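Weekend entry, working from home. Most of the wet-lab plans are on hold until the incubator is repaired, so I used the time to fold the two sequences that have been sitting in the queue since the last round of cloning. Logging both here for the record. First:
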Amino acid sequence: MAKKNIAFYPGCSSQRKSSAANYLVSVQSMCDKLDIAMNEIPDWNCCGASIGYAEGGELPRVAITARNFALAEKHLPGQDVVSTCAACWLANRETQERLEASPHLRAETNEALGAAGLSYQGNTKARHMVEVLIEDIGYEGLKAPVVKSLEGIKFAGYVGCQTNRPFGIAGESFENPQYLDKMVELAGGEAVPYDQKVTCCGGALAFSEPEKSQKQIRDIVESAYDHGADMIVTPCPLCQANVEVYQSEINKKQGTQFNMPVLYYSQLLTVAYGGTAAEAGLDGQIIRASRLEEIAGK
């Protein structure tokens, strides 16, 4: 039996064949090495992250998220609901707080869920995968499986805003969180000082107001270069996508020459644990992390 069982909630972006599918690949590889069993919640649905706020009202938004908890309570009792997506994690945490604070909203939510034979009991805890790694495995536990050092590679730890506020990671500074730096260092890499750690990447503004979003992204990437980083590492699929994808657009518009790989913490750890480039999902990068691929191939 695995030493840790979780009710895994992939979310829309991190599921198979989606925009952050390589994130899922690397998380699965990482969890295999750490003996964490990722038990996917059966028949899970979208958490509603952003579209749930668009005129739908509070009850529908809360109810669709509560449905995932109800499914986990029914099929995977006693297991924490764990997300890898920052937006999903925020939606899950917010839903639980709202339902705990309002008996009326909870009753309405369970009336809606009852139509599908489900009920929200509030017996599970919403967590981000990073919380599981830090709180349950611990930094020493994360270091133990390392067989390939990332020595010689400098990383800029970009937490972004969603995994930082309003809940954040317990014990961390909101202004200067250290957990990505510590993960990089336990794998042998070098975490560089980075003044854009908790800056927003622009989120959905990438579509509605691209100039504003691309200003944010330029600041994030430029700071990584200025501080000597070879790569950026993040825990957020939206941050990863925006900061990687729009570098080429910024280059065209502004004459820059950005080509900074943007990785997930799970990809770094998978390589450090002896995983192949494919197991780390490195083949899913738009900007290839060639130095990391070289280490994976040794």
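Second, folded right after the first finished:
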Amino acid sequence: MAADRRKRATIREVAQATGLSPAAVSYALRGIQTSEETQERVRAAAAELGYEAHPIARALASGRTGMVGLLCGSLEDYWQQSLAVGIGRALLARDRYALLVDAGGDPDRELALARRLRDQRVDGLIVQPLDPAAALWSELAEALPVVSIGDALHGDRAQGEVVFDNRRGVTLALEHLAALGHRRVAVFTPTRASTPDRPADVHVNAEAERLGLRAEAVVAPQSLAEATAVATEVLSAAGRPSAVFCFSDVIAYGVYAATRALGLDVPGDVAVCGYDNHPMSALLTPPLTTVDWDIDGIVRSAVRLVVDVIDGEPRERRVVREPTLLVRASTGGVLP
């Protein structure tokens, strides 16, 4: 060991430097029961002394692990990858750490992983649910703070929700396609037969009927290879649709790959619309028309909700994200 390596400063030394009790210093470092001025003074002294709270001691003292479970529906979906990166970084900025798990598009696996995160005593759980209707969510919400992204959870027991106005998002996309003259639209959705009542899918049927569209739902996994295979089958069949509306941009990328393999033109032979505005979507040839939900706003809202509940200071429970349709050349009628 180097002779000049500094010994880890203790909380008592921070207390002596600030003239506060060790308990008051502990509260200030956790941002509770003290004024902002005191918290800033304590943090400055701790930084100057090189004080770092030992994670195990902190967990024992507070009853918290500092970990927030982040349960993703499928990390094969590029948008969910971006969401996970954003949430992980935002939690880190709030002195928390994300414990990331991937349901791989399987609702049963999602529920099993949710139970495992609870058993590992995470301080809270953020989930973008594959099966928002599962009864387990009410049970979990009794044991730890749960914040959902996208859809509200069964039982209305989640402590926080960042929900999408899916009716509006679906309406924007289908009205756009109908205005361009499309009457037969394939709707590629990752929803499986085991979870047929997801709000966005339900809205498709209602809006298609209102607009006089023939909308055919097709299950397409959020995997580029699998989405490409599904799109190839649909687009090579007789009477192919003139437009495809995808509930994930990565599924739309699979449609692009299929059109190129089949020698079809986008949008000349088939128009393509996505649903989450991944940054790559603007770089495609042609650029992808898609529904934007403001991923940065989603990250900020979800992290704020879960941290506030963990700290016992909830200020709001429900945030509704409104969509914007970004019309690009993949549906025709506009320049790239």
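Plan for Monday: verify the second prediction. The chain has twelve helices and twelve strands.
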